[in-house]
Design a protein that fits this description.
Helices cover about 75% and strands about 10% of the residues. It is α+β, with helices and mostly antiparallel strands. Among the domains are: about 30 residues; about 160 residues, 60s Ribosomal Protein L30, Chain: A (2-Layer Sandwich), CATH 3.30.1330.60.
Length: about 375
C-alpha cells in the first residue's frame, strides 16, 4: 500500500512546476516587451532631441549672422551719430545767433507797436477834436439860422407890437383905477375886521369869565358834596380822601376776583347816592358835571373765564358801581365808569399792604 502511494505523490508535483514555469515565462515575455517598448520610446525621444538640437544649431547660426549684421549697423549708426552731433553743434550755434536776432527783432517790433499805439491815440484825439469842432460848428450854424429867423420875426412883429403896447397901456390905466377902488374896499374891510376882532376878544374874555364862574360853582358843589360825603362815611376808617377824589378799598365792595357788589358795599354806595342826590338838586341843570367811578387793581395777574386780565376786572367793578348808583336814582347821563387795571398804583411796594391800597374804587365829581 505504501509503495503504491509514492508514485501518485511524485506525479502531483509537475502541474505546479509547469504553472510556475509558465508564469515565469510570461513574466519574462512581459519584461522583454517592456524593454522593447522602452527602447522604442527612447529611440524616438533621442531622434526628437537630435531634431531639436539641429534646429537650435540652425537658429544659433541665424543669430550669429544677425549679430554680425547688427554690429555692422551699429558701427554705421555710431558714425552717423558722430556726424549728427557735429551737425547739432553747428545748428545750436546757428540757433543762438537766430535767437539773438529774433530778440532784437522782437524789441524793434515792440517799439514799433508802441509808436503805433501812440499814433492811434493821437489820431483818436484829433478825431474827437474834429468831431467836437464839427458839432460846435453845427450849433453855431443852427444858432445863426435861429437868430436870423428871430430877427425876421421881430421885424415882422414890431409894428403889431407897438399897437399891442398902446392897447396894454390903456388896459393898465383901467386896471389901476379898479385897483384904487379895491384898495378902498380892502381898507374898509380891514377896519371892519379890526372891529370884529375887538368884539371877539371881548366875547372871549366874557366866555372865560363865565367858564371860570362855572368852574368855581362846580368846585363849590364838589366841596359841598365831599363835605357831606365825608360826614356820612366818617365811621369807616378805610375810606380816605386822595386829592379831589374819594378812595374806597375794593374789599369793601367785592370779593377777590369778583365784580359782584357785596352787601356792605351796597350800604356804603347807598349813602353816596343819597348824598349826591341831595347835592345834585342844588346844582344848576346847565352846569356840566359827572360822577366818575374809577376801578383799580393790584399788579398780580388774573386770568379766569370771565376776566382775561386786570383791565376787565377793574372795568367790570367800576360798571357795577355805576349800575348800582343808577338804580339808586342818579341820572345815567351823570355817571361814567373807567377801568385802569394795575397801571396807576398808589403804592409801588411789593407787599400785601401795598396790594391792598392799590385795590380800590375812586369816586370823583368832575366836569363832563
Amino acid at each position: 500500500m505504501a509503495s503504491r502511494r509514492r508514485p501518485s505523490s511524485a506525479l502531483n508535483i509537475w502541474p505546479g512546476f509547469v504553472d510556475a514555469l509558465s508564469a515565469l515565462l510570461l513574466l519574462l515575455v512581459f519584461v522583454v516587451m517592456v524593454f522593447t517598448l522602452a527602447q522604442v520610446f527612447l529611440a524616438q525621444t533621442v531622434a526628437n532631441r537630435d531634431d531639436q538640437l539641429s534646429q537650435l544649431n540652425n537658429q544659433l547660426a541665424d543669430i550669429a549672422a544677425a549679430l554680425r549684421l547688427e554690429r555692422n549697423d551699429n558701427d554705421e549708426l555710431r558714425a552717423a551719430l558722430t556726424q549728427s552731433q557735429t551737425q547739432s553743434a553747428e545748428l545750436s550755434t546757428s540757433l543762438a545767433a537766430l535767437q539773438a536776432q529774433s530778440d532784437a527783432d522782437q524789441a524793434q517790433l515792440t517799439a514799433q507797436r508802441n509808436d503805433l499805439t501812440a499814433l492811434r491815440a493821437q489820431n483818436d484825439n484829433l478825431t474827437d477834436q474834429l468831431a467836437a469842432r464839427d458839432a460846435r460848428l453845427g450849433e453855431l450854424e443852427s444858432s445863426l439860422a435861429s437868430s436870423r429867423q428871430s430877427l425876421d420875426e421881430e421885424r415882422a412883429l414890431s409894428a403889431s407890437a407897438r399897437a399891442e403896447v398902446e392897447r396894454l397901456s390903456s388896459q393898465i390905466a383901467q386896471l389901476r383905477e379898479q385897483l384904487d377902488v379895491i384898495s378902498a374896499a380892502l381898507a374898509a374891510e380891514e377896519a371892519a375886521r379890526a372891529a370884529s376882532e375887538s368884539e371877539l376878544a371881548e366875547l372871549g374874555e366874557r366866555l372865560n369869565t363865565v367858564l371860570a364862574q362855572r368852574v368855581n360853582e362846580l368846585e363849590q358843589y364838589r366841596s359841598e358834596f365831599f363835605g357831606r360825603l365825608r360826614q356820612v362815611l366818617v365811621d369807616n376808617p378805610d375810606i380816605r380822601i386822595e386829592g379831589d377824589r374819594f378812595v374806597l378799598p375794593s374789599e369793601l365792595f367785592f370779593d377777590s376776583a369778583s365784580a359782584t357788589l357785596g352787601e356792605s358795599g351796597r350800604l356804603e354806595l347807598a349813602k353816596v347816592a343819597t348824598t349826591l342826590t341831595a347835592v345834585a338838586d342844588d346844582i344848576p341843570a346847565d352846569l356840566g358835571w359827572i360822577l366818575r367811578i374809577d376801578g383799580h387793581t393790584d399788579r398780580r395777574p388774573i386770568n379766569t373765564e370771565r376776566f382775561a386780565s386786570n383791565w376787565e376786572l377793574s372795568t367790570a367793578r367800576a360798571v357795577s358801581v355805576v349800575r348800582f348808583l343808577a338804580e339808586q336814582g342818579i341820572p345815567a347821563q351823570r355817571l361814567a365808569a373807567a377801568g385802569f387795571g394795575e397801571h396807576h398804583p398808589l403804592d409801588s411796594a411789593d407787599t400785601e399792604d401795598a396790594f391792598a391800597r392799590n385795590r380800590r374804587i375812586e369816586i370823583k365829581l368832575t366836569e363832563r
